[in-house]
Request: fold
Amino acid sequence: MALWSILKVRVRASLRNFQRPLTTIASRVDERVRVRLGEVVGSGNVSSSLAVREQHGRDESFHACKPPDVVVWPENTAQVRQLARICYDHSVPMVPYGTGTGIEGGVVAEEGGVCFDLSRMTDIVDLHEEDLDVTVQPGVTRVALNTHLRHTGLWFPVDPGADASLCGMAATSASGTHTTRYGSMRENVANLEVVLADGRLLHTAGEGRHTRKTSAGYNLTNLFVGSEGTLGIITSATLRLFPQPEAVASAVCPMPSVTAAGECTLQLLRSGVPLARIELLDDVMMDACNRYKGLDYAVQPTLFLEFHGTPASVQEQIRTAEEVLSGYGAGQLRWALAASERARLWEARHQAYYAARALRPGSVGYVTDVCVPISKLPEVITTTKEDLIQSRLTGPIAGHVGDGNFHCILAFSEHGEQERQRITEFCHRLVTRALAVGGTCTGEHGVGVGKRGYLLDEVGETGLEVMRQLKRALDPKGLMNPGKVV
Reply:
C-alpha cells in the first residue's frame, strides 16, 4: 500500500477516535455477577450509576468516553483476586483505574466490563530506609509518598507532573522532569505484586524480594512495567528511593531558537554535567505560561535547568553549565535557590497543559509525545515547530530534552472538524518523523488506544507477534483491559 494510502487509513481511524460519541453497549455484567461482586466488597462498593461509570470511562485525553458496566472499589489484594476470579469465570473484561490522569485513553472501557478503582488501597506496606526502597499499594500517589518520606531524608524522584498513582505510573512506564538524572519508572521498580486475569497472584521478582539487582531468570518486573493493565492488575510496587539532595539550584535561561536550545542540551550532556532536570519550553509555551501564571519570562525558547548535589558540587555544575550556555547565545539566567522560588518556577512548567489550553478559552486539549535519540532532538523539534506553523495549529512545545522526549500540547475547538483533521495529520507526521530517526511513538504517555497503530512500525511484525503471544499466555480470554496496546 502506498505511503499516502496508509496515512489516509490511519487518519480516518484517528478521526473516528476523535468523533466517536458515547454509546450504550449491551452489558456483559448480569445481575448474578453484580451480586457476586457485592459479596466480595460489599454492595455499597459496587456502582452501576451512569455518572460514576462515565467518570471511570475517560482519562485526561481527548479520547471519547467509554464507560464500564460496573465500578468496584476493592480495599486489599485478596478482594482484587476474588473479583478477578469472578470476572474470569464469567468472561467479563477488567479495567484497572488509578487516578485517571493518563492521556492516551488507557482507562476507557472498550468492551465494557468491570472497572477496578484501586484508589482505596492506600497503604505504604514496607519502608526500608537502610535499603533505600519502599513498597506501596496502588492508591498511593507520588505526592503522598514523598510527603510520608519527608522525615527520612529520602524521596522518590519520578515526576510526571500530575499527582498520579505510583502503581499507575508503573503500568504506563511513566517518567518526567527528573529522568535525565534518576531514570524513569522502568529503572526504579524493583518488584511488583500482580493479580493475573484468573486471580492468581504473581510477585515479579519473588515474594518479599527487594534487591538492587538480580540475574535470576526472565525480567518479569519490566514485562509488567508499561503493560498498561493488559497483562494483570498491579496491587503493589516496590520502588527505589534516593537521598534528598543537600543543595538544589534551579534556573531559567532564554535561548535564541529551539535549534540552539536542542544543540546546547546535547553539549551540556556531553560535558558531563549531572543535570537533575533540563526542560525546554518554546516561545509559544512561554507566552502561555506568562499569561496563565502572571509571570514575566522572556517570550523565547527557554531552558529550565536544575542541579542537585553538595553546595560545592552544585556550584561547580553551575559554572560549567554557564560556560556551555554562553556558547549558544543564551540570555541571562534567572536563578531560584530557595525552595519556595523553585516551586514557583517548576509550577509554571507543570501547569503547561492548562496554560496551553488557556491560549484558546473553551478549547479542548490534546497532548502527544515522541522520544528520539538525543543527537536527533534539535532537528526533530525544529521541523516539528515548522510543521505546527504551516498546519495553522495552536501547539506549544514542552520537552524533557535531557532524554530526547518532548510533547506538543494542542488546543483546538471541540466542534472544528477541519482542525481536528489537521491535528490528526500533524500527529501522524510527528510520529513518522520520530520513527524515521530511530525514535519511539511515545516516550512516557503509553500506547493506550491512541498509538496502537504505530507499534507495528516501531517493533516490527515479529516484535508485535511476541507481544501478542505473551498477552495470550497470561490472559487467554483477552479480558485484561482489552483494546489497548496490542
Q: What stands out?
A: Residues 4 and 10 are 10 Å apart (CA to CA).
